[in-house]
Amino acid sequence: MLTLYFFPGACSTAAHIAIEETGAAYEARRVALRDGEQHSPAYLAINPRGQVPALSVDGGVIIENAAILAYLGRRYPSAGLLPSDPVEEAQCLAMLTWISNTVDKAFRQAARPERFVADETARPAVQESGRNAYWGHCQEIDALLEGRSWLMGDRYTVADPYALVYYGWGLRLKLPMQDLANYTRHRDRLLQRPAVRTVLEREESPLFKAA
Questions:
Q1: Which end of the chain is more exposed for a tag (fewer CB within 10 A), N or C?
Q2: Model confidence over 56-66: pLDDT tens digits?
Q3: CATH for 156
Q4: H or E element at residue 92
């Protein structure tokens, strides 16, 4: 049995959607981040970094979204969540890495500048820099989707629910996401998928209200 540790609206939504897409039996366990459960000894024994997502697999634990998404794609090839061609698979993994390392960091800088600089007077500039970088990354995703149904082309992959998270987070930053026509159409296509709807309804996602 797989166990996914998640929090509604966090980046764990991507892993939550991906595991739902596989059709595999799993338990979804909500971690009460706002109550500090991620810092409890019990959860730190699962993920010493005190973050979500974490995926318990056969007595072991996988952490970090990119690793979890890649694992699910490889373990359940019939779900078609990773390209079968080695080069295309590597390109998909590169997309996951870029989102995890670059897009995510810009959002966190915009949302939580105090984590990047101790000097309170410097925080507005750090926040604005993160916000501008994040908007630039969203525009890059929009450009990548030009003429495509999905991020990797005509095939839906684990990169798509990952990108959906950051569309929603752009709305959280009050960025004009609707101006990104390709990215918005991508969101709309994702909202038509049963697994995506199941997870977003379970997590009470505001993405439904924004559609």
A1: N
A2: 998 899 999 99
A3: 1.20.1050.10
A4: helix 86-98
Residue 21: both structure tokens together:
């897409």
Read off the tokens for 4.
């996914």
Report the distance separating Cα 90 and Cα 165, nearest Å: 21
**What six digits make up the tokens of 144?**
């990548």
The counts of H helices and E strands in the chain are 10, 4
User: pLDDT per residue over 87-111, tens digit each?
Assistant: 999 999 999 999 999 999 999 999 9
Three-state secondary-structure class, residue 41: helix
Residue position matching structure tokens 């459960």: 37
Assess whether the previous peptide bond of 8 is cis (omega < 30° from 0): no
| Domain membership of residue 43 as a residue range | 2-79
Which three-class secondary structure state does DSSP give residue 153?
Answer: strand
Q: Are 187 and 17 in contact (CB under 8 A)?
A: no
* Strand-strand pairing, 2-6 and 54-57: antiparallel
pTM (two decimals): 0.95
**Count: domains in the chain:** 2
Token code pair at residue 201: 């309804």
Distance CA 195, CA 26 (A): 14
* Residue 184 per-residue DSSP state: H
